[in-house]
Amino acid sequence: MGKLLRINTREKTLNFEKTTDAYAGLGGRALTSKLILDEVPATCHPLGKANKLIFAPGILAGSPAADSGRLSAGAKSPLTGGIKESNAGGLVSQKLARLGITAIILEDKPETSDFSLIVIDKDGIRILPADDLVGKGNYAVMETLWEKYGKNVGVLSIGQAGEQCLKGASIQQADMNGRPGRAHGRGGLGAVMGAKKIKAIVVDDKGASRVEIKDKEAFKAANKKWVEMLRKHPVTGEGLPALGTAVLVNVINEAGAFPTKNFRSGQFEHAQDISGEKMAEIIEKRGGVISEPCHPGCVIKCSNVYNNKEGKYLTSGFEYETIWAFGAHTTIKELDDIAMLDRLCDDFGLDTIEMGVTLGVAMDGGMIPWGDGKAAIDLLSKIGQYASEGKIIGNGAGFTGDALGLDRIPIVKNQALPAYDPRSVKGVGVTYATTPMGADHTAGYGVTANILSVGGTIDPHKKEGNIELSQGLQIATAAVDAAGLCLFVAFAVLDNDDGLPTICEMLNAQYGLSLAPADVLELGKSILNNEKEFNRKAGFTKIDDRLPEMFYEKLPPHDTQWDFTSEELSKTLNF
Amino acid sequence: MGKLLRINTREKTLNFEKTTDAYAGLGGRALTSKLILDEVPATCHPLGKANKLIFAPGILAGSPAADSGRLSAGAKSPLTGGIKESNAGGLVSQKLARLGITAIILEDKPETSDFSLIVIDKDGIRILPADDLVGKGNYAVMETLWEKYGKNVGVLSIGQAGEQCLKGASIQQADMNGRPGRAHGRGGLGAVMGAKKIKAIVVDDKGASRVEIKDKEAFKAANKKWVEMLRKHPVTGEGLPALGTAVLVNVINEAGAFPTKNFRSGQFEHAQDISGEKMAEIIEKRGGVISEPCHPGCVIKCSNVYNNKEGKYLTSGFEYETIWAFGAHTTIKELDDIAMLDRLCDDFGLDTIEMGVTLGVAMDGGMIPWGDGKAAIDLLSKIGQYASEGKIIGNGAGFTGDALGLDRIPIVKNQALPAYDPRSVKGVGVTYATTPMGADHTAGYGVTANILSVGGTIDPHKKEGNIELSQGLQIATAAVDAAGLCLFVAFAVLDNDDGLPTICEMLNAQYGLSLAPADVLELGKSILNNEKEFNRKAGFTKIDDRLPEMFYEKLPPHDTQWDFTSEELSKTLNF
User: Fold this and answer.
1) CA B570 to CA B542: how far, in whole Å?
2) Structural domain of residue A73, as residue ranges?
3) What are the residue boundaries of the Aldehyde ferredoxin oxidoreductase N-terminal domain, all occurrences included (chains A, B) (predicted)?
4) What is the distance in angstroms between the Cα of A304 and the nearest Cα belonging to chain B?
5) pLDDT of A93-106, one tens digit each?
6) Which of A96, A191, B108, B489 is deepest in the core (most CB within 10 A)?
7) In Å, what is the CA distance from B86 to each residue of A152, B76, B510?
């Protein structure tokens, strides 16, 4: 197996370590979560020296397997106070795999205020002063680093938000064009990187050998089936390539589950103006890119490039959740304003879901007017200016609600709820309440069977079946995150009996193993158990596994209400 | 027994309720904590409609018993998320007792933004618009209300901080001069009052009958012993009347337990400049008042009036903890600046301990320079200006540390540590860690045996005996808070075998009971058990009963460290 790269950010020293048996065969979220459980004191301060920031490619990373280029980042979260894994596309995962690095573990923290740059290539590791990058946004940082280290190096960096250790801070990854279009968004991991005074990490695999595949023929055959499966499924083969994830705007709005004006309604009267269809029309007219991959080897290609009115680049990786958060949630209906807010988040290094929800909460508290895109842009810009308002909103929805003295704040474990109202998509609501991550749709995407009729059909308004739905999805997702596969492969896997076996075939061919689907699900369970155990040690109880009181209000148009008891919810991850 | 006054703040309705058997004989903290446990859903949002704000006089309130005029305020705390009782002197407690009101329970919250004034007198209750008071500080509010309702009515009010629902907001009580010198300071109860849109409560007992005493002669005899005991003890009879609580500055500084520069040292080089001796000298020179009571019937008289250089009133009730928080903790050494900070807190309605610690944290994060009194006054003033900086610091030390991305924040359960370093006064350190209130010296004042040799002597630097010390004090304090007695009576009680029996004699004479000291201690235990139970239901675990990592640093000059394990601490309130 590969090796762990430990970097002491205070002493500026490093060492390589062979992975021990306990960690053999673990990658991505399986590895970050186990390392955090084993090495990070659960009660430590997330910004203190005892926390560790870990990056781990999935176990399929660097192989030719389609859509296997996601990198997991993990730490104790400054936002939730619990364990966190947040994965993203980009270039780093596959390059680390080729360099034989199973994980980067950033430890300790400097006592000085100087930031460093870490450069990793096949000849070794350099820890360099980053004075020229400090105070810069991710666009400038990545441009500088691509110029200096080559036009296709992988980059992980933080912007002004991470430098300020704000709880909404992301770690951005350079996309295939060297722009910060991909984000380890949720849970404030950028603040941990900021606390450790690492401005950026460059990963260059030039001259590195390919990842070893034990049985090349078998791998090729399995991957062929895999690619076909992804291409044939209507979501991964048609919907996502055609309109990106924003294909969901009209779908979720029609289902009455599109949270509007800080979760007061499930339908937004201006949904059309911010829909995937509208976005595709604008992109086409202005000469953007409707469909592009977020990492090499992706066949779904749900990313995009959105130009401004002058036909110049404005933002990329413009996603459904972002459009919802800055759109329906705040009642902003101008897609260009929403795109600018997305760009600012990528540049300052901020989670778009957290920031969109925060702006809605700020509007609820009277900080800026509802639906005012320009005011929202001005307020978000305060983060880049290191201003006091930025130190409020940059710390997220819970923090901003507290600053404004509000009692109606859509958070679980202090993390903002994403783009699906839990009252009308109860399968994802169960996930929000119970995942160790805090409110997170990607941890168990119940929208599948609730709305999209993928992997079966379960009534989104009723309790029945939704605990089980979330449980199954949370287990499968943990395994998918360990493999380094994009979550969207789940659409095809859920609708194909041959899906999970094909993933096993690829793993078996790469590593000479004989895994069966049951083994993969056991892995998923063990990941969740590790994460639950860390949170338990950090002081979490079943009281933390719940939605706030506001979700007992009725949601128009279907007048649905949240109605799960604590006892019911506690079954979700009890296995 | 008396009656409970319930006021629905949304409907502007009220009703009187006979106290049921379950609440018979309970007053002060015993009553507020039991009502909260029984009626407030532990997981509710503290600023939401399900929280209740309760005021309850102690069971000796209104009687001639010396120092029995403390009023308990209780709610689920916006600062800690747990149960809170915070008591203060002033005029309200005795007046409520004479009106036969055992507790005021403020329920629900309005949907509009209008504030109300509640006026309580013997003829009934009026809920009036408070438009003329909104936006005003407590000095102006109390002046207006004394002018309108009479020059000795009791007043509870909130300033700009409570209106903004800030977690550092206090509820101030008019002192005997109609000034906001007394505070229900800790835990942000002013924010709960603000959320319920109650700007002030006026309590007028004109025409009310005296509190009934069943055996007047026995009461008189017991109270006489009681007064003598208080007058003879060196702390309550000499130290506190001569220099106020600031008598402790030199004592605690010499013990090396005076937290300096955000808990980096136990000694402040300028302690002399902010000492009780120095304060008394200034007060005398400028024609202030060195010693006055905080409520009628107090024989200790540790309060004071501090004038400015021109000999005009500047502040009153100027306490040791305030002087420490704004002084040594921030390294501000000008007593006039500290007095101005105290005044601003009283006026805006803020806890001085929370705010002083917050300013030190803000200095640690570079918001203002260390030791700069003028900058501190400017920053604190932002709260009165409803500015963004105010919405950061007004939410307390934990919030401000988070806003600034710090990992060294002296809080327990999100409440700022008071004026005794837990590494060098371990008895009080155990209290900080384990009381259900969050870091609070008054919950179990281990300084007694640790530093003052009151009630025995226990080494403040060692573990031995300090769990037991804190346990005994926490039990006794809960009972004292239920009686409505000033905590300072504990000095005399701890050093007199006849102390607790004398309190029992007064209670027995007033109510025709036959309580023994063991009954009083059982009451103390039951209060703590109720509070622990509420916190457990709110999601607290033993993980919350600990000091932050920073207290594992060595504290000069004695190089003491915090060294209690979680297992040891968990014994403190296990009975």
Assistant:
1) 7
2) 3-203
3) 1-207
4) 34
5) 999 999 999 999 99
6) A191
7) 61, 11, 25
Asked if B403's CB is within 8 angstroms of A395's CB, the reply is: yes
Q: In terms of domains, do B104 and B8 share one?
A: yes
Closest partner residue to B541 (CB to CB) among A388, A407, A541 is A541
Indicate yes or no: CB of B43 within 8 angstroms of CB of A404. Answer: no
- Alpha-carbon distances, residue B440 vs B244, B413, B434, B532 (angstroms): 20, 10, 10, 15
**Among partner residues B48, B388, B548, which is closest to A45 by beta-carbon distance?**
B548
**Residue where a domain terminates, one of A419, A441, A468:** A419
Beta bridge partners of B119: B126, B202
Name the residue in chain A with its Cα closest to that of B161.
A405
Contact B179, B140 (CB under 8 A): no
What pLDDT shows up at residue B243? 93
Whether B413 and chain A come into contact, CB under 8 Å, resolves to no
- The percent of residues in chain B predicted with pLDDT above 90, rounded, is 99
Both B366 and B261 in one domain: the answer is yes
Residue B157 lies in a domain: yes
Are residues B289 and B362 both part of a single domain? yes
Mean pLDDT, chain A, rounded, equals 97
State the greatest distance between any 2 C-alpha atoms of chain A, in Å, as a whole number. 62
Do residue A47 and residue B539 have CB atoms under 8 angstroms apart?
A: no
- The alpha carbon dihedral of B304, B310, B313, B314 has a sign of negative
CATH of the domain at B53: 3.60.9.10
Q: How many domains does chain B have?
A: 2
CA–CA gap between residue A46 and residue A43 (Å, rounded): 9
Q: Which residues of B touch A50 (CB under 8 A)?
A: 549
Split at pLDDT 50, 70, 90, the class of A1 is: low
Residue B330 has pLDDT above 60, yes or no: yes
Give tens-digit pLDDT for A362-402: 999 999 999 999 999 999 999 999 999 999 999 999 999 99
Residues in chain B: 575
Same-domain status, A98 and A194: yes
What percentage of chain A carries pLDDT values higher than 70?
Answer: 100
Last residue of a domain, one of B203, B231, B256: B203
Q: Is the pLDDT of residue B429 over 60?
A: yes
How does the average pLDDT of chain B come out, rounded? Answer: 97
Query: For residue B315, which phi and psi values (nearest 5 degrees)?
Result: -155, 170
Residue A28, token pair as written in the block = 């991505």
CB proximity A364 to B under 8 Å: no
pLDDT band at residue A2 under the 50/70/90 scheme: confident
> Scanning every residue of chain B, which has its alpha carbon at the shortest distance from the alpha carbon of A538?
B543
Chain B CB contacts of A402 under 8 Å are 167, 395, 399
Residues B191 and B251 in one domain: no
The answer for B 543-572 residues in CB contact with A (under 8 A) is 543-544, 546, 548-549
Task: Name, in order, each residue with C-beta under 8 angstroms of A417's C-beta and a sequence gap of 6 or more.
Answer: A259, A263, A357, A410, A411, A432, A439
ipTM for the complex?
0.95
Q: Is A391 on the interface with B (CB under 8 A)?
A: yes
pLDDT at B1: 56
Q: Is the separation of the CB atoms in A175 and A157 below 8 Å?
A: no
Give mean pLDDT, residues A411-421: 98
**Average pLDDT of the residues in B15-23:** 91
Q: Closest-CA residue in chain A for B541?
A: A539
pLDDT more than 70, % of chain B = 100
**Contact A445/A493 with Cβ under 8 angstroms?**
no
User: What is the model's pLDDT at position B90?
Assistant: 96
Count CB atoms within 10 A of the CB of residue B310. 8
Interface test with B, best of A111, A543, A546, A552 (most B CBs within 10 A): A543
Q: Give the pLDDT confidence score for residue B19 in this predicted structure.
A: 87
Specify whether B74 is located in the same domain as B175.
yes
**Interface size between A and B, measured as CB pairs under 8 A:** 89
Q: Are residues B199 and B296 in the same domain?
A: no
Contact call for A407 and B543, based on CB within 8 A: no
Would the pLDDT of A196 be above 80? yes
